[in-house]
Design a protein that fits this description.
alpha/beta, 10 helices, globular, 49% helix, 5-stranded parallel sheet, 5 strands
Length: 269
């Protein structure tokens, strides 16, 4: 015998996923989408990154048993990897949709696991949209250190790097259903940023204005300091020479790939 999947149900839900490194504007984006955009969703998700762990373990397990898959004496030969993955995906789909009262809903899970899970998520929700929140490494690490002072400096650098690198690995394939939002632009150009989001999500102008108002009056959680036209330089951070070297070792290359510099201009010229 051989287990076959019934015709796969195509979800009509159109979830919006706010992803990126923590301390990069994910909270104000979520708040603006919920209050201004009137899109339902939890303040934090952290459920859907589990998809990555399931799928990676399934892939590893089936690879380890590849010599048995053509031998009908073994049960696993009649249960394909594709079938198992679809069953797992269906569990996540049904569970998530059971908590939503509308077909458009919001999820914010700011970590690298969620970013790495995106290729699996788009297979579950073909109409999903992704907003990648980003921020220069210097400001991100400063903010991380202030909110989570117990976490070592190098760990913060590695976490930011992991999120940014993970996005670079998939962003080219996600261009049709994603945008990038710079936290600095939320603060310095709230109206323009709100309009970009509104256009991307097909929001009416009234909701765009409400989002812009939230961006203007409720600044991002800037534990790293107020956003100014002139950004902080790496030598003004108060970091030791050792910390600066650690930052450059782990974050320097990816910082440049995103067009960031270490000077007060924020962006590479």
């Amino acid at each position: 015998m051989n287990i076959e999947k019934n015709q796969e149900e195509i979800s009509q839900h159109r979830p919006i996923f706010i992803i990126g490194s923590g301390r990069s504007g994910t909270s104000i984006l979520t708040g603006a989408m919920r209050s201004g955009g009137q899109i339902e969703g939890y303040l934090e998700g952290h459920f859907l990154p589990l998809i990555l762990l399931f799928m990676q373990d399934i892939e590893r397990y089936y690879f380890s048993k590849r010599s048995l898959l053509d031998d009908k004496r073994h049960m696993i030969a009649d249960i394909s990897q594709d079938y198992v993955e679809k069953q797992i995906a269906e569990f996540f789909r049904k569970t998530s949709e059971s908590l939503a009262t509308d077909k458009v809903w919001l999820d914010k899970s700011p970590d690298s696991a969620m970013i790495k899970a995106v290729p699996y998520i788009v297979k579950i929700w073909s109409q999903s949209r992704f907003i990648f929140a980003k921020r220069r490494g210097i400001e991100n690490i400063i903010s991380r250190l202030k909110k989570f002072p117990h976490v070592p400096f190098e760990k913060h650098c590695l976490m930011w790097k992991d999120c940014m690198e993970s996005w670079l690995m998939i962003k080219d394939k996600m261009q049709y259903c994603s945008i990038e939002i710079e936290q600095r632009e939320i603060a310095l150009n709230p109206q323009k940023t709100a309009q970009t989001i509104g256009t991307f999500l097909d929001l009416d102008q009234a909701k765009v204005e409400k989002i812009a108002h939230i961006f203007t009056t409720q600044r991002p959680q800037n534990t790293g300091g107020k956003e100014e036209l002139k950004a902080i330089t790496i030598t003004e951070t108060g970091w030791t020479n050792e910390q600066i070297n650690i930052f450059r070792k782990h974050c320097g290359l990816i910082n440049n790939k995103f067009g960031y510099c270490e000077s007060s201009s924020y962006y590479l010229q």
